[in-house]
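Thread: quick sanity check before group meeting

JM: Hey all, I'm pulling together slides for Thursday and realized we never actually wrote out the predicted structure for the chain we discussed last week. Dropping the sequence here so it's in one place. If anyone has concerns about the input, flag it before I start.
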Amino acid sequence: MRVVAAANWRRLKLGWSQFALTRNADPLAASAWLGQPEALLELVAGFWDQRRPGVGRADLTQVAEVPIFPGSLAQFTSRWIPIAQATDFQTVVVRRQPHEDPFLLITAKGPVLPCRHASVVLYSSATLLENGGARSGDFDWEVVAITAGPWEKEPMMPLTMARNFLSRPGGTKATYSAEQLAESIYHWAGFVQARPA
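JM (edit): ok, ran it. Output follows.
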């Protein structure tokens, strides 16, 4: 467990979800934190006052997205290639977790865009229990996802939005607008994930 001072108004218990730890070590993950897990929690605590509601959320009670400012990006990595510069496309069937539905992941070779922005998505302890979920420890908030890449406001992946909206296995109920979904589809149609070395 990690207890940190955050927001200058209380002591906050932050931790990694087992899901995020496993995904962060997966070579097929689109974004990752390369440093020690504890160091990421320190960063999150330092930027906690800058948090905003997660996509599809009205307030900060369920999902918080904590932006990491540019001077602290050295340990983040992303693997996005513009499709116009990608070659040697390959498709594999993957599952994020054993109980989740499989999906197709397209990877390619090409020049990876630099990581200029990052944010950390955390779920509250109550939100983690929705849709048959589980907590990974006695934390107030757990890291569930890392987004890192060239975009300041990276759209959520369309499949992630669908999984959440429909409360499919691995998703947490959230509502999105048609515009948010359309923006996500249009954005991600232009990029492909780099294949691990």
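AS: nice. Residues 2-194 form one domain. Residues 100 and 169 are 5 Å apart (CA to CA).
JM: adding both to the slides.
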